[in-house]
UniProtKB/TrEMBL annotation:
PANTHER family reported for this sequence: ABC TRANSPORTER, ATP-BINDING PROTEIN
InterPro entries: AAA+_ATPase, ABC_Gallidermin_ATP-bd, ABC_transporter-like_ATP-bd, ABC_transporter-like_CS, P-loop_NTPase
Keyword ATP-binding found: yes
Keyword ATP-binding: yes
Family: Belongs to the ABC transporter superfamily.
Domain called ABC transporter: residue spans: 11-234
SUPFAM superfamilies reported in the protein's UniProt record: P-loop containing nucleoside triphosphate hydrolases (SSF52540)
Any one Pfam family match given in the protein's UniProt record, by short name: ABC_tran
GO molecular function: ATP binding; ATP hydrolysis activity
Keywords in alphabetical order: ATP-binding, Nucleotide-binding, Transport
Protein name: Antibiotic ABC transport system ATP-binding protein
Amino acid sequence: MEEFIMSEYILKTNHVSKKFKQTDAIKDLSMSVRKNSVYGLLGPNGAGKSTFLKMVTGIIRPTSGEIIFNNHPWTRKDLLNIGSLIESPPLYENLTAFENLKVRALLLGISTDRCHQVLQQMDLMATNNKKVANFSLGMKQRLGIALALLNNPQLLVLDEPTNGLDPFGIEELRVMIKNFAASGIAVIISSHILSEIQQVADDIGIIYNGSLLYQDKIDAHKNLEQLFMDIIRKERAS
């Protein structure tokens, strides 16, 4: 596994492990996410991607190891600078997009002006009084990301955000993710869809059976699918 030369990271993990009873879900995982970049976390279903991201976002605690956020040990206060969309968006179906954002803004002590900003950023201004129950899956995903952006995060964590989206929704999300990094937000996006990661990521990590097998910058001249398959096959054969 190659190490990044750059010194400035928004997130680093040092030998992080997570055990559920007798099962090792994450094993001695060390990774580095550069500031203002898109990091693609790749792996088959069940590889440990979601478990790892839940530790980064404070949903579960590591069994051992250390998470460093913005050059200091991670604490729950850092969640004020981390936005996330893991699994299904946490939405109130009987409320509008703005009302969903307003509820979160009140909890965070954020001005409702910020609600309008993220609605515009995620192209949801035209939803007006439409209830979330009547949204398409793509609109719900965009609202989930809007909620994650509400606190102006330095790091945005997206777990399988293209699940269930049609090709137009995937294309829109791809553009948004690139814009997030360009605006100064580091993004971790997990996926098992290699072609999508290759189009948006600056760096990639490949995880399998809870272990990070590979980490490096994206090489436009490499066949990512072939690289991924070679690494996974080698690990399965060992």
